[in-house]
Amino acid sequence: MKSNGRIWFPAGVLVSLGLGWFGFPAMLYRAEPQPVAFSHKAHTGQKGGMKCEDCHALREDGSFSGIPGIEKCAGCHASAIGSTAAEKRLVDEYVSQNREIPWLVYARQPENVWFSHAAHIKLGKLTCEQCHGEHGKTDTLRPYEEDRISGYSRDVRGNPGGKKMKTCEDCHGRCGVGQQGCLDCHK
Amino acid sequence: MTMDTKRKRPARYGMVIDVDRCTGCGACMIACAVENNVPPAQPEATDRTGITWVRVYQIHNGASFPENRTAFVPVMCQQCGHQTPCVSVCPQQAVDVDRETGIVGQMPQRCLGCRYCMAACPYHARYFNWWDPVWPKGMERTLNPAVAPRMRGVVEKCNFCQGRLHAARERAAAAGRAEPKPGEYVPACVEACPTAAITFGDLADENSAAAEQARGGNTFRLLQKLGTEPKVYYRSSRPWVHQVAQQDFGRRKKEEIRG
Asked: Which domains does chain B have, with CATH numbers?
């Protein structure tokens, strides 16, 4: 029987590429939806008019507050604003019970990484958008993706695949800062 | 207001340990272990296999009674400034000398556990994790979040409390400064010493107390003949301490031991 290599070979290449390109990454990461449907757009847009710093602030000692606690939400959402099902869930399950929302933090660093927002904002004069992109204007939270092997978050800066040491190194190299020792950023 | 947002010149952090003041109490060793997440020793650990980033050695002048004298010498990583032995032998580039601070840094995640650096270190200041770290139940809540625990199979050592340098840098950054002011960054052992025997500071800053003491009389460094230019200085008014410091007094405790 004559094998038809002209068809089978490219088809095999395509299948392998497809598996490597789409199948493997899907296998490597586990996606999980965020516990609450949160819209940054609703808060920062015309309706809310809030700034990033209103919720995510630097503390006096330079540490970063991260995601605000439930008391911050309760400041406005003590009772439901609007009548969506998600809003009702937020008030019933979290605000009225004074329970913290178990957010899945995209930007959580591995335990051996030291990252200081203060150094980047105060000394580097970076804006939030330079690293986090348009995250503050998005309407939905994308699913949290966790590396099945390391347990680390896949994306730290709003762009999938963005959380690599290379990203840090590139910027530090361009700006000529802190590329001296491993322990500048590792602990 | 001027903002000092760029680093001026590289620092050379170092310390001067006054041997005449050291009482051998071991508070530095405890403070160090607590600060740097060194777990309690395994029951089967020995002097050779246990982990103590700073180790207080007792030295003797070798004379018999009534001329016998003893002293205590805390030995941590000496932060060698010239041809740092551990850096030159590491096949993994898991050790580097930070050009900004002069601190010899160890990256446990890169370490493959060959222990070549331990053989190279003339001060026996490097330690191998023979076991996975285990904290008694409840004690894991006392872990310092500024320091990542290490795993079995890697080497670790003193890095002048890098976590404290990070914290000090973050506080400085919040105030708009690139580097902490003198005194804002102090390792745990320095802080814990009840007799204030350790003076820590930037040796490159001529006005720092550490630089002043290092320049002063009666100072010496361990195994000076090797030319490793450690950034840890010692001082004593007793000549015999100077002599013993030039011998490899850690060897008996660290190498010639079974188990």
From this structure: 13-253 (3.30.70.20)
